[in-house]
Design goal:
The protein has 132 residues and is mainly alpha-helical. It has one domain. Helix content is 77%, strand content 0%. The longest helix is centred in the C-terminal third of the chain and has 28 residues.
C-alpha cells in the first residue's frame, strides 16, 4: 500500500508540472502577458526554459528517475514562481485574495516536493545522526 500511495502521489505531482509546462507553449502569449505584468526580465527566454524544465522534470518524476534531485529542483522553481508571480502583497481585493490563495497552495506543493525528495533520497546522501 505504501508503494501505491507514493507512486500515485509522485505521478500527481508530476502532472501538476507537466500540464502547465505544455500550456506555456500552447498559450504562449497569455503567459508572456502574465510575466510582463509582474515585471519579470527576459520573459520569452525564462518562459521557454520554465516550460522545458517543467515538462522534462515531470517526465523524470513519472519514470521515477532522479526523483529526489528533480523534486528539490522543482521545489526551487515553485519558490521562485511563488515570489515572482503570486505576490499577493502587491494587490488588494479579489485579485489579492486570489494571489494569496495561489501562494498558499504552492507552499503545499513545495512541502509535498520536499517530502518526496526526502523519501526518495538515497541513503548515501542522507545526513547520518550521531549516537551519543
Amino acid at each position: 500500500m505504501n508503494t501505491l500511495l507514493l507512486t500515485v502521489g509522485r505521478v500527481l505531482l508530476a502532472l501538476y508540472f507537466l500540464v502547465p509546462g505544455i500550456m506555456k507553449f500552447v498559450s504562449w502569449d497569455m503567459h508572456i502577458q502574465l510575466m510582463e505584468k509582474h515585471d519579470m526580465p527576459f520573459v520569452p527566454v525564462l518562459l521557454g526554459l520554465a516550460g522545458i524544465f517543467q515538462i522534462g522534470a515531470a517526465i523524470l518524476l513519472i519514470a521515477n528517475r532522479f526523483t529526489w534531485i528533480v523534486a528539490l529542483l522543482l521545489a526551487g522553481l515553485v519558490l521562485v514562481i511563488n515570489v515572482s508571480l503570486h505576490d499577493f502583497w502587491n494587490y488588494s481585493g479579489l485579485e489579492g485574495a486570489h494571489e494569496m490563495q495561489n501562494f498558499i497552495k504552492n507552499l503545499g506543493i513545495f512541502a509535498g516536493l520536499l517530502v518526496l525528495s526526502g523519501h526518495s533520497m538515497p541513503e548515501c546522501c542522507k545526513a547520518k545522526s550521531v549516537s551519543q
